[in-house]
Structure formats: C-alpha cells, structure tokens
Amino acid sequence: MVASSTVSADSRKLLTDNLLLYVSPNGSDETGDGTEAKPFASADYAVVWANNNCDFGERFDLYVKLAPGTYDALQIYGQGARQIYLVGEPDDPGAVQVKVLKEEAVYGLSVAFYSFVHVSGIDIASIMVTGFSHLIVDQCYLSPSVAPALVLCSNHSTIDFDSAKVKAGRIGKGEESTCYRSEIHSHIEVEQLEYEATVECNTFCEAKFLSSIYVCGDSKTKNNVKAKQLARAITQSIVCDSDFLPEKSSTANLATSGGLVDDLNDSGL
After folding, report:
1. C-beta separation of 127 from 150 below 8 A
2. Which of 109-118, 186-195, 202-211 has the highest mean pLDDT?
3. Taking a C-beta distance cutoff of 8 angstroms, is the pair 261, 235 a contact?
4. Can you say how many angstroms the Cα of residue 112 is from the centroid of all Cα atoms in its chain?
5. What are the φ and ψ backbone dihedral angles of 132, each rounded to 5 degrees?
6. pLDDT in tens, 12-46
7. Superkingdom of the source (predicted)?
8. For the chain, which residues make up each domain, given as ranges?
9. Are strands 261-262 and 238-240 parallel, antiparallel or unpaired?
C-alpha cells in the first residue's frame, strides 16, 4: 500500500510511492481501510480518505481499484494526488457499472475542481467534467441515461476518449439530448469510439463559447447513432473533422451533415 510511515506536519502520511486503495460493493466507508481485505464501498470516498490522510507531495498518483458490481454515481471533486486512476475491469467493462441510483445525482461520473482523472474498464452512465479538470477515458462503456448530455465538458476542462463504446439507448429526455457537449473554453477529443445500435439523441455534437469537439476516428459504427442534427457551434466554437463523416444523405442520422462549423448562430446547423 504505502512504502513510508513518515508523518507530515499536518499528521498525514507523507508518501514515497503511489497509493493503491480497493473499493467493493460489499465494502464499507465506515469500517473499511482501503485494503483488499477491508475495501471501501465507494471510489469517491476513497479519494476523500486519501486527501485527508495522505500527503502525495505533488509527485505520486492514487489508484482506486473497483471490484465487479454496481456503484452509485461517483463525484471526484479536488485531489491531493498528481492524478487519480479509477480502474475497473478493462477486459470486461460491463462487470463494473456506475449508475445514477439517487435523485441528487444526474451524471454517473462527475469530475470537478482541478481534478485529473484516468478511468479504465468501467461502464459509466454519462459523464460531466468541469472546473479546470481533465479526464481520460480508456476501455470503457458509456451508457445513455436521463442526463441531458452523454458527455458534458465545461469551464476550462478537457476530455480525451482513448477508446470506449457507447451502449444502445436514448440520451436524455425531450429536446435536451446531446451526445457530446463542450462549453466555456473546453475541449472534447475522440480517438476511438464505437456505437451500438441504436443510440438516439437530438444533437450529436454541440460546442459553445470558445470550445471545441474533435472527432478524429472514422468509426465503422458511427451511423448507429440517430440524431436530428449533427452539429451546432455557437460563438467562435468548432466541431470537426469532416473525415469522420461519409457523404451526406437524406436519412435522419449523424451523417446528414458534417464538417467544420464555426461561429454559427443559435439556430444551429
């Protein structure tokens, strides 16, 4: 777990290596200690515990290993570690599910307040990143939920999708339904993403207020998404690239329009 028992001035353990904590649906945030034998019950509590009890010295990372099972929405707000790794089952992301089980949460994973998080091997019901934060998603599933956006990046933040799969389903409710939304000096970059049939939303990409969305992977399953409009960009924002899309067609899906859109008014594309 921790290679050093040195205590800092504020009584936190001064780490000399990365910290590994365990989480399980059968664990406890009251009696657990983060070991494999006595895991915590939630990943966000593990992060809070690490911040309160350990001094990472701005050099070491926090690894949180999630055992298979279903978890309530995770909220990662601030961190003492250089970076937080949330690790499920990369070979079977569906074995570790993060869902919105309580009314006070909307997004399955919320990252905020200068947090730097790397997630792998987890099935997540929608994502929100805000407040000067950065999220990397690798070997995950994204499940549509009641959240108005499958992925929301806001307020000087960044999301990188190294590899993931969007599960079938309807994103959001009513007219407020977006697959990717970037706003207020933020950026979403999609490297490799697959889509099950059928994913439904009103707007595939929406960028607002000096933000950008860059879809750089030519996924063979992209037309599994049914969207009323491909892209909307407002106030010097950008959505690209055109190579992601095939030729325009009359079918109402994400291939009906595409390419570079910059500084459109609120009427959209």
Report:
1. yes
2. 109-118
3. no
4. 11
5. 60, 45
6. 889 999 999 999 999 999 999 999 999 999 999 99
7. Bacteria
8. 69-262
9. antiparallel
The position carrying tokens 């990365």 is 18
H/E stretch holding 129 = strand 127-129
Alpha-carbon distance values, 253 to 17, 189, 214, 229, 230 (Å): 49, 21, 19, 8, 8
Residue 65's SS3 state is strand
Tokens of 95: 């074995």
d(CA 31, CA 20): 18
Q: What is the DSSP letter of 244?
A: G
Q: At a CB cut-off of 8 Å and minimum separation 6, what does 267 contact?
A: none
Task: Give the 3-state secondary structure of residue 50.
Answer: helix
Question: Would you say 202 and 232 are in contact if contact means Cβ atoms under 8 Å apart?
Answer: no
Amino acid at 94: G
